[in-house]
Design goal:
- The structure is a single chain.
- Helices cover about 20% and strands about 30% of the residues.
- With about 240 residues, it is α+β, with helices and mostly antiparallel strands.
- The chain has three domains: about 55 residues, Roll (Structural Genomics Hypothetical 15.5 Kd Protein In mrcA-pckA Intergenic Region, Chain A); about 90 residues, Pseudouridine synthase I, catalytic domain, N-terminal subdomain (Alpha-Beta Plaits, 2-Layer Sandwich); about 80 residues, Alpha-L RNA-binding motif (Alpha-Beta Plaits), CATH 3.30.70.
- The strands form four sheets. Strands 7, 8, 9, 10, 13, 14, 15, 16 and 17 form a nine-stranded mixed β-sheet that branches.
- Helix 1 packs across helix 2 and helix 1 packs across helix 3.
- The protein is elongated, with a radius of gyration of 20 Å.
Length: about 240
């Protein structure tokens, strides 16, 4: 027996928090009856529906995309712009992106129908590293990098400690590696801008152990069994 919201998350219907909201709103039924918060089900025996539509636990699919510039990190776009799903030619399963990369940001993006993995990768309490390389304006000093590492104050609160390494500097720019585990919107850009170094170019190298090495922008591949096992160790086995 498992909690209903966990089942919904595992099916890729929603995150656990969203699933709890759906249950509270009376939108989820188990064996034809409206479910309540805290309900547990047997996935092999109970019939679950959302808004009257039956839910079947799909085979889990994990895809890493080297997201190119000019593409929206969304399942669909109201302005008919190209989305990351448009890059996944050949993927027949219904998957969704884990977290977001801005339209002008490139790099590793995981897409999956595993709602539990997605939740844990995106939530800061699970401490999953996100590794970026940024070209920024100005010559960053060691003191500035240290302040970023220790955490700085932003309009929505202080940042958590990070790992910041200056890789290269020129007269008017710096190449910086940043390792963070928060998922706040545009966080790397806001951190750098706050210390006087606006981002010129940003790429995500990895999300946890997931990397897009060997893929050119716009290319994708399925994760290997070994990568999936590592991903689960980084998340499922580290429940705080």
């Amino acid at each position: 027996m498992i909690r209903l919201q966990k089942f919904l998350a595992e099916c890729g219907v929603a995150s656990r928090r969203e699933a709890e909201t759906y249950i509270a709103e009376g939108r989820v039924q188990v064996n034809g009856e409206v479910a309540t918060i805290g309900a547990k089900i047997d996935p092999d025996a109970d019939a679950v529906a959302l808004d009257g539509a039956g839910i079947i636990r799909d085979q889990k699919v994990y895809v890493v995309l080297h997201k190119p510039k000019g593409v929206i990190t969304s399942a669909k776009d109201t302005h008919e712009r190209r989305t990351v799903l448009d890059c996944l030619d050949g993927v027949t399963a219904r998957v969704f992106p884990v977290g977001r990369l801005d339209m002008d940001v490139t790099g590793a993006l995981l897409l999956t129908n595993d709602g539990e993995i997605a939740h844990r990768l995106a939530h800061p309490k699970f401490q999953v590293d996100k590794i970026y390389v940024a070209w920024v304006d100005g010559r960053m000093t060691a003191a500035t990098a240290r302040s970023l590492s220790e955490g700085i104050e932003l309009e929505d609160g202080p940042t958590a400690p990070a790992k910041v390494t200056i890789l290269k500097t020129t007269n008017d720019s710096s190449r910086v590696r940043l390792v963070i585990h928060e998922g706040r919107k545009r966080l790397v850009k806001r951190m750098c801008a706050a210390v006087g170094h606006p981002v010129r170019d940003l790429r995500r190298l990895a999300m946890g152990s997931i990397r897009a090495d060997g893929l050119i922008p716009g290319e994708w591949r399925y994760l290997s069994d070994e990568e999936i096992a590592t991903l689960k160790r980084e998340t499922i086995s580290q429940d705080p």
